[in-house]
From TrEMBL:
Residues 595-607 have a biased composition (Acidic residues). This is non-specific serine/threonine protein kinase. It comes from Latilactobacillus sakei subsp. sakei (strain 23K) (Lactobacillus sakei subsp. sakei). Pfam families: PASTA, Pkinase. The lineage of its organism: Bacteria, Bacillati, Bacillota, Bacilli, Lactobacillales. Residues 357-423, 424-491, 492-558 form the PASTA domain.
């Protein structure tokens, strides 16, 4: 298990595991140089010492690097680090076709044809390079988020040139999609892939595989003994022409199947046509035997046969040789035969050397235009292989990023050199960021390499801190390192300067507050300088920016505060003191004086008023005397 954060080859930083298989584990990683997500396929630890598995793993990389097709997962890099074999490939965000069928079944017929057309186009490209997949099944067919198809896992794919002279006795591939000839132990051909494609089409139309069984062997036997059940038995609405595509692709005899993937694709394209509405059902001729009967090797739980190792094959060969009685030969014949073999070996060596020629060094083509690079290879007597396009932040469009084999390696003359050419800087698709938090969007865009600017704008509909508008429209693709995006962020509801309320009446303030959506809190205080009912102060102060819903405190004047006063009444016979001061111990005597003074005539009161300037002690004494 590879740890998160580990950088394979110092470049591909592991993010998390995304899949496990019988041969390898797959991880999601970040390409630190090209700033993109990739899938890293790493050979399992327990299989790294198995030469046959390593060869099979390497074969996958070599087979796929020869293919350049939009419906085939691209291989970016291959290598080995600390005895760990790895393949860097295109990361497809989505699901596999097996899960897609479960989640979307029943699938409209036109969508089925669209999916199959993409699959067939990819397989046709592989067959054009003489590569047979041999393990076509929904689990190896990926569906991205846009519904596009990508075929992966060429782990048991093999070039025809490697199988032309050898017939394998092993079964490879998932048994539910296995062709009859593979089940019998015969060599896989292009028409074996067509059979598997027919089973995939069957599953797209019915949601199930045609054969089930208690064991892998029982399912394999059904593939070469039982006819594939008609899909119209499951769904009678399926057009006969579409069912015929399944029946012809899954014919037991390979000769009765489509001659090539292109023929199947052409037939499938018109299967929903009204002109084929009354097409008769395809009936293959009965073939009792496709080839001589062979013993089917033991199948493992995944439907893949256990490969006989070299040691067992050697023992079988030795045992066979012991059973054959060798005729006696004279020593002279042995010498002649041996000399002939030596001469043949020498001749073969000379011919091989003449054909291969001398070794040459792969030139450094980095940053050359593709045309110049091809000319340089020709000058070195090397052949131009595949040209793979990929984005690059460093190299201009049309310039070589690197070669395979890499520069500086010695190879035979006339060898093929593959080119990895820049398709330009990697572009980022701008999304719709409105109504999203500015801080989150800013961080995400900066991580992609974009420069972000912010400006504020008030809004009654958009909450503060959320994005109202963006300077680059959603859907546009940009080069991150050369792009600056401006995000308009809501500052909340529109603000305005608070009026000076000093000349407003209470009613005027209430009207002003209602018009602007403000809340007013009133309080009152005495003031010797502000008229009653007018504003003494306000908070916030005038000119302060406020928004709808804010609160304003206003203090109103109660007018001048009342002052304390004294009234003193005197006369010749008595005196009265009126005071707002607290009562003294003489309060009872004062009350008596007041009652007596109330009975005096008006003239006496006027006389008492005139004597108000007399001393307090004299008034007090007069009061006592009046009693």
């Amino acid at each position: 298990m590879m740890e998160t954060g580990y950088a394979v080859a110092g470049r591909y930083k592991i993010i998390r595991p995304i899949g496990e298989g019988g041969m390898a584990n797959v991880y999601l990683a970040q390409d630190l140089i090209l700033d993109r997500q990739v899938a890293v396929k790493v050979l399992r630890l327990d299989l790294r010492n198995d030469p046959s598995t390593v060869r099979r793993f390497t074969r996958e990389a070599l087979a796929t690097t020869e293919l350049n097709h939009p419906n085939i997962v691209s291989i970016y890099d291959v290598g080995e680090e600390n005895s760990m074999q790895y393949i860097i490939m295109e990361y497809i965000k989505g699901t596999d076709l097996k899960k897609y069928i479960v989640e979307h079944f029943p699938i409209p017929y036109q969508r089925v044809i669209d999916i199959m057309t993409q699959i067939l186009s990819a397989v046709q490209n592989a067959h054009a390079h003489n590569i047979i997949h041999r393990d076509l099944k929904p689990q190896n067919i990926l569906v991205d988020e846009d519904g596009n198809i990508k075929i992966s896992d060429f782990g048991i794919a093999i070039a025809l040139s490697e199988t032309a002279m050898t017939q394998t006795n092993t079964l490879l591939g998932s048994v539910h999609y296995l062709s009859p000839e593979q089940a019998r132990g015969s060599m896989a051909t292009k028409r074996s892939d067509i059979y598997s494609l027919g089973i995939v089409l069957y599953e797209l139309l019915t949601g199930m595989v045609p054969f089930e069984g208690e064991s892998a062997v029982s399912i394999a036997i059904k593939h070469f003994q039982d006819e594939v059940p008609p899909v119209r038995n499951y769904d009678p609405r399926i057009p006969q022409a579409l069912e015929n595509v399944v029946l012809k692709a899954t014919a037991k005899d390979p000769d009765e199947r489509y001659s090539g993937v292109d023929a199947m694709m052409a037939d499938l394209a018109t299967s929903l046509s009204a002109s084929r509405a009354h097409e008769p059902k395809f009936v293959p001729s009965k073939a009792d035997d496709l080839s001589e009967t062979k013993v089917i090797p033991a199948l493992d739980p995944e439907g893949i046969t256990q490969t006989n190792n070299d040691e067992e094959q050697v023992k079988e060969a030795e045992s066979t040789q012991k059973k054959v009685k060798k005729p006696a030969k004279s020593k002279r014949k042995w010498w002649l035969l041996g000399g002939g073999v030596v001469l043949l070996l020498l001749l073969a060596t000379v011919i091989a050397f003449a054909v291969q020629g001398s070794e040459v060094t792969v030139p450094d083509l980095t940053d050359m235009t593709q045309q110049n690079a091809e000319s340089a290879l020709t000058d070195k007597k090397l052949k131009v292989g595949t040209v793979q396009k990929t984005t690059s932040q460093k190299y201009s469009k049309g310039h070589v990023i690197r070669t395979t084999p890499k520069a500086g390696l010695s190879v035979k003359s006339k060898s093929t050199v593959n080119l990895i050419v820049s398709s330009g800087r990697q572009k980022y698709k701008i999304k719709d960021y409105t109504n999203q938090a500015y801080s989150d969007v800013r961080d995400a865009l900066k991580d992609k390499g974009l420069k972000v600017k912010r400006k504020y704008q008030s809004s009654s509909e958009v909450s503060p801190g959320l994005i109202i508008d963006q300077s680059i429209a959603a859907g546009k693709r940009v080069v991150p390192s050369k792009t600056t995006i401006t995000l308009t962020v809501s500052s909340g509801k529109p603000g305005f300067a608070l009026h000076n309320l000093s000349n407003y009446t209470k009613q005027g303030i209430q009207d002003y507050a209602a018009q602007n959506g403000l809340t007013v809190v009133f309080s009152e205080e005495y003031s010797s300088s502000i008229s009653e009912g007018m504003v003494i102060s306000q908070s916030p102060a005038s000119g302060t920016m406020v928004q709808e819903g804010d609160s304003v405190s206003v203090i109103l004047s109660k007018g001048e505060q009342p002052t304390e006063h004294h009234s003193i009444v005197t006369s010749s016979s008595n005196s009265v003191i009126e005071s707002s001061a607290p009562e003294s111990s003489q309060s009872s005597e004062s009350s008596a004086s007041e009652s007596e003074s109330e009975s005096e005539s008006e003239s006496e009161s006027e006389s008492a008023s005139e004597s108000i300037s007399s001393s307090a002690s004299q008034s007090s004494q007069s009061s006592v005397q009046s009693k």
